[in-house]
Amino acid sequence: MQVILDFLFSSVWLLLITLFAILIVTTNLAQKKFFKTKFLNLVFSGLMYTLFALSFLFGGFINPVYFGYGYATGFNKILANDKYVCFLDSRMAGGGDGDFGIEYHRLHTLNVLTGEKIYKKVLGKEVEYFEQKGGLLFYGGNSNSYLLNIENGETIKHFSKKTLPILYSELQSGIDAFQYDQKDSYIRITAKNGKVYYITPYDGKITSQLPAIAVDYKETYDTAQDSAYISLVAKKSSDKIFVLADRNGKVLNDSLEFLEGEMFHIFKDLNRFVVLHYTNTDKTTFILTCMSTDLKKVWEIRQTDLDSKHYWFKNQATLDVSIAYLHQLIFNIGGFAFAINGENGKIIWKEHL
């Protein structure tokens, strides 16, 4: 049933076709005279039209707000710890993958080692930040923030102007301003009595003193920006072709070329790095090439080696998010999630989300 509903709500056009079919069926049934009395026939007709109305409301508005059926077409962010990997995407209320309506965000939680789907959860409209510490996920905006247990998806705390005076006696005068500092990981609150307080969300502690540069709660295993020993620089003859260089920009091998290349991830303990590059300047198909620090190719995998076709949709080149966990590369192609073994380039798991 889950697979059928995800398929149905994956495209606004498929949803509209389904609703149109329901309209035809319910209209035809509503005009039939199944009963001997006029009253019962009117009641039956009313039920048929009500069924269509409910189908329309569920498909366009109720589902994206409360249930979140439908396959993902891309992702906004990815997080991982030693048990789980979390993908964040969004859907529009009012249509599957359309460009209209209100955006609602969804959390997809998988087992990081096997790719087994644990749960999918609608997070709501306001997700300006999305970060984690250990087994806890913190997300929200400047009106509402939530602390969530990653293991089961349950909300541990809800921080808002309405709930904060209930959670903390210091804030009983009410909340004048509420803002989360993403850099230093604390909520800054101005109470209606004029006093300023700070809450560190993962332990829930409140203080009137500005926390010393807060503990770095934003754990990440992403080392793509760590280019301490190898970098990519554009060739003098073309700003689209990149070659490998040392930290000072000195070219190490001018014959190793990467079209639209960028450093994807670095495995320091393996003395390897992975370059993301493409088969053409349109970036329609990507290649991941793993190199050793002595510039020997270890493995290479092309997008065409990864089956990411979704029914009638074409193979998507969109790689939105990625993260390195231990020796795994976890990333997406459209609505598919992949985990690749960083040592040999083999697929560990693949899931359609």
Distance between the termini: 15 Å
Output the number of helix runs: 4
CATH class of the largest domain: Mainly Beta
Q: At the third CATH level, what is the topology name of the largest domain? A: Lipocalin
Lateral strand order in the biggest sheet: 1-2-3-4
Major sheet: size, sense and barrel closure? 4 strands, antiparallel
| CATH level-two architecture of the largest domain | Beta Barrel
DSSP E strands, number? 23
Structural class: alpha+beta
**Residue runs with pLDDT of under 50 for 5 or more positions:** 95-99, 214-227
How would you characterize the overall build of this protein?
Helix content is 17%, strand content 41%. The chain has 353 residues and is of the alpha+beta class. It has three domains: 2-67; 77-207, Lipocalin (Beta Barrel), CATH 2.40.128.630; 231-352, Thrombin, subunit H (Beta Barrel). The strands form six sheets. A four-stranded antiparallel β-sheet has the order 1-2-3-4. Strands 5-6-7-8 form a four-stranded antiparallel β-sheet, with no helix packed on it. A four-stranded antiparallel β-sheet has the order 9-10-11-12, with no helix packed on it. α2 (12-31) runs antiparallel to α3 (38-67).
